[in-house]
Amino acid sequence: MMKFSRRLVLAVSTALTLSLGASLPALSADEIVIAGSLPLTGMFGFAGVGVEAGIQDYVKMINEEGGIAGRQLRFVYEDTAYKVDASVAAFNKLNSQEEIHFYYGDSTGFAKTINPELNRMGSILMAGTSYASELNDPATYPFQFMAGPDYTEMTGILLEYIAKEKPGAKIVLVNSDTEFGRDPIAGTKARAQELGLEIVEEIITPPTAVDVSTEVLKLRRARPDYAIFHGYLLAPIPEFMSQAKQLGLDTKFMGTFWSMDPGSWAKVGDVANGYMGVMPYRYADDEADDAPMLDRIRQMRPDYRSTPYMQGFLTAMLFSEAAKRTLEAGKELNGENLKAALNTIKDFDTGGIIGKPITISGNSIPVGRIYTYNAATQKMDPASDWISLQE
Amino acid sequence: MSDLLFFTEVTLAGLGAGALLSLTALAFVLIYKATRVINLAVGEIVMLGAYLFFAFAAGLGLPAWVAIVLSIAGGGLVGAILERGLIRPMLGENPISVFMVTIGIGSVVVGLVELLWGTEPRALPAFLGNQPIFLGEAYVSRKIAIAFLVSAVVIAGFVLLFRFWRGGVALRATASDQAAAYSCGINVPGVFSVAWIIGCATAAGAGILLGSIGGISPAMGVFGLSALVVVIVGGLDSIAGALIGGLLIGVFEAWAGTYLGGEYKIVTTFGILIAMLMIRPYGLFGTTEIERL
Amino acid sequence: MLIGTAKHSYRADEALLTTSPQRLWMAILLIALALAPLALDNYWLYLACLVSINVASATGLNILTGFTGLVSIGQAAFMAVGAYTVAVLEARTGLPFLVNLVVGGAVAACVGLVVGLPSLRVKGLYLAIATIAASFILHFVFVNWQSVTNGNSGINVTPASLFGVELTDYVHLYYVFVPITALMVLGAANLFRTRIGRAFIAIRDRDISAEVLGISLLRYKLLSFAVSSFYAGVAGGMWAYFFRVVTPESFPFIYSIFFLAAIIVGGMGTILGGVVGAVFMTLVPELLRFAVEWLTTIFPNAVTALSPIRTIVFGALIIGFLIAEPKGLAEIIQRIRRFFHLWPFRK
């Protein structure tokens, strides 16, 4: 019996070695490598899938145009199921196989965990799904950035809009009891005070909350003009909206980037009508004149409309731009040079992905626009012009 | 609006949420009563029930009532398979081992649901209507009111069954003394199967209600943990305990969430649990186990 | 073939390694552990460090659950206590990191004592549920005790340093973690050669009988909780130096179940079991990653199936071992050992 086992062990180990060997792609000094920990599965799966498609498409586009200074882009990634330890494992695995220039991270936890390692290595520029306010600090996070406004800046843009529409409005903040959810609370309160807006109630929902009846009662007691939700992908916002409607409240419901996907809202139905929120990018079906890049996207993905796609696409564009500027200056591709090149981006035209030329002076791009969901067309309609917090 | 009215509304909402907890707790109690197994996979069966409803109602486009019947039956079938295939071989083992097997089952169910339906949260097709309900002046969310009514009917039904139905009496007999039940000619393994089938079917039904309120996702099984607290507080083998424990926890959670803040909900629940374990370890209505050497 | 072992003293009978093949294998293992970093790349070193942390914590849980019979589903929460202690000490005191680890363990042990209190009144499933409750309450403390834990965003940990070297490379961490874990495992093995260890086992086998024999349940049950939490605390401290950021979400409830699963799969109530189980359960998800990668050559979409497959395999391993091999991997290893003992006389 043991003989058989030993043979088996031998066979298995040979197979393993072979498959290991096979999975190591040939290294090429000419390539520029974008690696990523993507949450393709898990509660954040919809983001990972969209981001993957976005980066993939941009890479394909650039490579078809001949790459960056003749060097081809390559995108490698692993699924992490939105778990920090899996994400760190993926980072280490990819790093031991490739010479990586750019990394796409999947969560705030990962961005914070891997930051000391990034600083130590100094060879990688990283962006990701996280817009955590804490990451918007070039001193602590020198080799990271986010392709949009941080969460506090997102609510800041909402407040800016509210202050213009209805000065002195009453606002309720609804946040989930997670790191993600609590991120902008302090900043939002401070900003609201500056703008003369009144925060009349703060509601925290436990992450496992199913029933929100008691929270809706609190909302009704406060009778706000606006309720700003943050820390949710979708649920429980629809339940809040439907109960508020039953109660005859005329509160306007608002959210931030990760709850702005019209595809998700389409499944909710009529209740979703009138939901508003801040969006840093144009939607793929926007046929604005100054958006040639959106035409390209529609050619590549005729019926794909997810918001993470736009985020991934723009992130890849900024990665490429940083690489291009670094190579043009004749410098080596490392974290410091790439970040410096990224920070030289001034009044940059994104091809219409963002409706305004962008300038990246730190770790974020504090620009966004307010959209309103229209249940009849299942689309997000612009409700404001582009708002920038840089001026 | 007066504070008293607000308090009444919050309490009503808590009672509604508590009724859902009671219903899920009932699944724990039914299985524990007959087989002395704490089935930690109840939360995952709840989730599975909601997904089955989703598949039948949204996927196949069946009418809501057909989908409800089919998902409850599906839950029962899963219960039967689990009992026959995985729990029966563990008969007579250390209760902790069986408990761990159910944790394993929970993990497998989550994985299978993720494979079949993906991991993103979804909404169930609306079938409960959305006309608001007012009790006097107090507002009650319609879904919560329906959940309350359904739970009340189901629990009342079970109480009657245990009192008058032959199978229910057999189940009670098995619960009080397995060996004696055997010698009276009761088919004890049959009772085990029935308990699992009914328990899992109840859980699946609770899942449909839960999913229609808060949407569905593979992670919704954590609701089972709150229900577990309910059964510990109420007593593991007491149906009345499940009912009263559920309502109690629901109301306390609602009060804590309203007057202290949402982050205090979970800690209140588990605080009650610890206090209960220290004061009355076998719950409000549970049978005290006496150990002899 | 090994015919028999004649022992002339109790000392020899109690020795940890009783036969020369055992000593030889242990020597080979130690040498292999010492030389492994030469052969491993960064990814495998990362996994080796993670394995080492998990082995330390699983061994602790094994003392409590496998040897004393008190089931705990709160091991990750105790790790979190250790990790937070280390993070706070590192940020505010600048004590040497070995001291921090020990203090982290000690604080976790104190918390363990408190959490162990219900064990005097309830046992079995009720106790397991009390530990679940404790871990959720601890999570609440981590989120809301802002002034110490920095709430949801957690604490960043500066790297440990030893003899002036900053421990940032996985190689360095490996050479620190593995000896610490080895010492902890050795300590656990030795514990069961003492009165305390035997008292634990007596309590597991029948606590009322043990009490009749004069073993103070109060003392030994709480002691077991304290020792186990100490192990978890030190492991959590290593975790903090390893990942260098500690947040309330770093130690999810599922991580506690992971440790329970590890000792079930490895074999409860044997030191070897805790070690093997932790190694096995840490590496299986990573090996599945390679399996799925290989599958992508056939099914391009297999990548998205990785996480569900991991969840299913995790559950299936628990079920499979409990039904088919309740004594775990340690028993399988023993069987292989017996085979070589008797070879070639028994098939």
Automatic annotation (TrEMBL), chain A:
Entry's family note: Belongs to the leucine-binding protein family.
Signal peptide (residue range): 1-28
Gene3D superfamilies membership: 3.40.50.2300
Signal is among the record's keywords: yes
SUPFAM superfamilies given in the database record: Periplasmic binding protein-like I
Organism in which the protein naturally occurs: Roseibium aestuarii
The Leucine-binding protein domain, residue ranges: 32-372
PANTHER family: BLR6548 PROTEIN
InterPro entries found in the cross-reference section: Leu-bd (IPR028081), Peripla_BP_I (IPR028082), TAT_signal (IPR006311)
Protein known as: ABC transporter substrate-binding protein
Automatic annotation (TrEMBL), chain B:
KW Transmembrane helix (keyword) present: yes
Localization terms from the record: Cell membrane
UniProt keyword list: Amino-acid transport, Cell membrane, Membrane, Transmembrane, Transmembrane helix, Transport
Transmembrane stretches, start-end: 12-31, 38-58, 64-82, 94-117, 144-165, 186-210, 266-285
Membrane topology designation: Multi-pass membrane protein
Source species: Roseibium aestuarii
Keyword Transport: yes
Highest taxon of source: Bacteria
Family: Belongs to the binding-protein-dependent transport system permease family. LivHM subfamily.
Chief localisation class: membrane
One Pfam match: BPD_transp_2
Protein name: Branched-chain amino acid ABC transporter permease
InterPro entries to which the protein is assigned, alphabetical: ABC_transp_permease, BCAA_transport_permease
UniProtKB/TrEMBL annotation, chain C:
Record-annotated membrane-spanning stretches: 24-49, 61-85, 97-117, 124-143, 172-192, 222-242, 254-280, 312-330
Topological relation to the membrane, as annotated: Multi-pass membrane protein
Stored InterPro entries: ABC_transp_permease, LivM-like
Main location: membrane
Alphabetical UniProt keywords: Cell membrane, Membrane, Transmembrane, Transmembrane helix
CDD domains found in the cross-reference section: TM_PBP1_LivM_like (cd06581)
Protein name per its UniProtKB record: Branched-chain amino acid ABC transporter permease
Organism: Roseibium aestuarii
